[in-house]
Design goal:
Layout: H1 17-50, H2 52-55, E1 76-78, E2 85-87, E3 89-91, E4 99-102, H3 108-113, E5 139-144, H4 149-162, E6 168-172, H5 179-183, E7 188-192, H6 210-222, E8 224-228, E9 232-234, H7 240-247, H8 276-285, E10 291-293, E11 296-300, H9 317-320, E12 326-328, E13 332-336, H10 339-354, H11 356-359, H12 385-396, E14 412-414
Parallel strand pairs: 5-6, 5-8, 6-7
Antiparallel strand pairs: 1-2, 3-4, 8-13, 9-14, 10-13, 11-12
Length: 419
């Protein structure tokens, strides 16, 4: 008997030539579509998770971090990307041809690690676009050494009383005997500041170089923070009126910072509680920085800034000496991790801290000798981190404090002198 040519139950039917070609073509198309899908998925992951910094720096308003080496040797520092150079000279926002000394190129690695440059790759929180999204819940951050432990404990316990579940980060700058008291406080994370990662002069605590580093590190980690010195004591639990000064970005198509007329301090109304009329105007105009200061120091920026700082961070001296350029406490800040915050404040704040004679010029001293005019006359003193951050804010926001302070003082007290 001859065998049957029909397929059995366990055999596949034979395919003709056209059928084989059709199936092969289908497989090729399927494989091609699969490759395209994988490519698109990898691209998506790269853009959203591989490098958060670059994702937020791709529009037409991108700040020019890079510089051509040829003709710019006095400002260029090599980045971690081969063939690319960072512009490490601070440039005056109103006239970018005016620039300061180049910051030391050896600081590139530190600043990239902190997430302040485009080639940073270890960010834990992408930049916040306030026009399109809400800011994350702020984390409270503080830092102090043993001699401010008593003040610090009161500040932390007040936060814990008002917000029982609020996360608090405490950076230990040298707490010894009092450390055991803080270990017992719930929802308090204690971190030892690693001075060994920074130049030796960081150990001089009263130069406050550690502060911009801590602010940058925690902003990159959490996206929004309150940084407060040990003397800050909160008074109320509702901070929405402060947050609204930043959340308003979603309600405006374009923020405009017109040049406001500078006036003498004698005719400028200082903050007192919460002025609702002024607040309404501020929310409507929405021109405040996402790096907000709060507590007025009682004088201008110019009297308490050592002239040596201007070698690194130039300014418009005529504007800086006017009453609109008030100095505010650097130790009480609400900030959001935005592109503007990095470009205007944090990058240069950190670089100045790293550069020995920028944050602490030769002859710098805290003790002031104020003259009759507490805005236009130099008082032979220096406020270190406070001088630098106020100078950067004034330069970036038209030398008008309304643009970089909350103008709200009803939610905190400053209590110094416990030790």
């Amino acid at each position: 008997m001859t065998a049957s040519c029909r397929p059995t139950m366990n055999e596949a039917p034979l395919l003709s030539g056209p059928d084989l070609q059709m199936r092969a073509g289908f497989r090729q198309r399927y494989f091609l579509l699969l490759l395209i899908a994988v490519f698109l998925f990898i691209t998506f992951l790269t853009e959203y998770y591989g490098n958060y910094f670059n994702m937020a720096f791709t529009d037409s308003e991108k700040y020019d971090y890079y510089i051509d080496l040829e003709g710019n040797e006095d400002c260029a520092c090599p980045s971690s990307s081969p063939g690319k150079y960072y512009d490490f000279c601070y440039r005056l926002p109103e006239n970018r041809t005016v620039h300061g000394f180049r910051f030391n190129c050896s600081f590139v690695e530190i600043v990239e690690r902190l997430g302040l440059l485009p080639d940073s790759t270890n960010l834990t929180h992408r930049l916040i676009n306030l026009k399109k999204e809400d800011m994350p819940p702020p984390v409270f951050v503080t830092a102090f050494s043993e001699n401010h432990a008593r003040e610090g404990r009161k500040s932390i316990e007040r936060i814990r009383y008002i917000w029982p579940q609020q996360k608090i980060i405490l950076y230990d700058l040298g707490i010894t005997e009092a450390l055991s008291q803080f270990v017992k406080i719930p929802n308090l994370e204690i971190r030892r500041f690693n001075f060994s990662q920074y130049p030796s002069y960081f150990s001089k605590l009263t130069e406050f170089r550690w502060k911009p580093i801590i602010i940058a590190k925690t902003l990159a980690e959490f996206g929004a923070i309150w940084y407060l010195d040990s003397s800050i004591v909160f008074k109320k639990n509702d901070l929405s009126h402060v947050y609204d000064l930043v959340r308003c970005h979603r309600n405006v198509s374009k923020r405009v910072n017109p040049k406001l007329a500078s006036v003498t301090e004698g005719t400028t109304t200082l903050e007192n509680g919460w002025n609702r009329e002024r607040w309404d105007q501020n929310v409507r105009e929405c021109r405040k920085s996402a790096y907000l200061l709060h507590g007025f120091s009682g004088h201008g920026i110019y009297p308490a800034t050592n002239p040596g700082v201007y070698k690194w961070i130039p300014t418009n001296m005529a504007e800086l000496r006017k009453g609109s350029a008030g100095m505010y406490d650097a130790g009480f800040v609400f900030a959001v991790w935005t592109r503007e915050t990095i470009e205007n404040i944090l990058l240069w704040y950190v670089l100045c801290a790293l550069q020995e004679r920028c944050m602490a010029p030769r002859g710098a001293t805290l003790g002031c000798s104020f003259k009759n005019d507490r805005y236009a006359e130099y008082a032979d003193c220096h406020r270190y981190d406070q001088s630098v951050v106020n100078l950067l804010a004034a330069n970036s926001y038209q030398y008008e404090r309304r643009n970089y302070v909350s103008e709200i003082v009803d939610f905190f007290d400053i209590e110094r002198g416990f030790d």
